[in-house]
Design a protein that fits this description.
Strand order of the largest sheet: 1-5-4-2-3
Radius of gyration: 14 Å
Strand content: 5-15%
Structural class: alpha/beta
Number of strands: 5
Oligomer: single chain
Helix content: 25-40%
Distance between the termini: 35 Å
Length: about 130
């Protein structure tokens, strides 16, 4: 199954409603805090999956911007040997992207709270 198919499946109906505990079990440790993301910026690739209009509000310095809908076509821009930290506005889209990347053989996490949490914490943006 390709990356696009994984994303499509993640956002298609029918879906099952599960508890928070079940979600945490399924996701494992794929969600990291903004503090962890800041600490890992030098050794991981920050992947901003927000839309073009959203990144005008600021990006994490050094982040690669690939809107979620373009990811499959631009997957070659990511090095499978470099861990990925996926970022969006609130953490929902980036969680789906991280899950799809993990399924495609990458090591990917999502940043809890997304750019909303990053900017609230006063961390740097460009």
């Amino acid at each position: 199954m390709g990356l696009f198919d994984s994303l499509k499946k993640a956002f298609s109906k029918p879906y099952q409603t599960i508890s928070v505990a079940q979600a945490e079990e399924l996701l494992g440790s794929g969600e990291i805090t903004i503090t962890e993301a800041e600490q890992r910026r030098a050794s991981a690739r920050i992947l901003d999956v927000r839309e073009d209009f959203e990144v005008t509000e600021g990006m994490i310095p050094g982040a690669l911007h690939i809107p979620m809908g373009q990811l499959q076509a631009r997957l070659g821009e990511l090095d499978p040997a470099v861990p990925v930290i996926a970022v969006c506005r609130s953490g929902n889209r980036s969680a789906a992207v991280a899950n799809a990347l993990n399924g495609a053989g990458y090591k990917a996490d999502t940043m809890a709270g997304g750019m909303s949490a990053w900017t609230r914490a006063g961390l740097p943006t460009t």
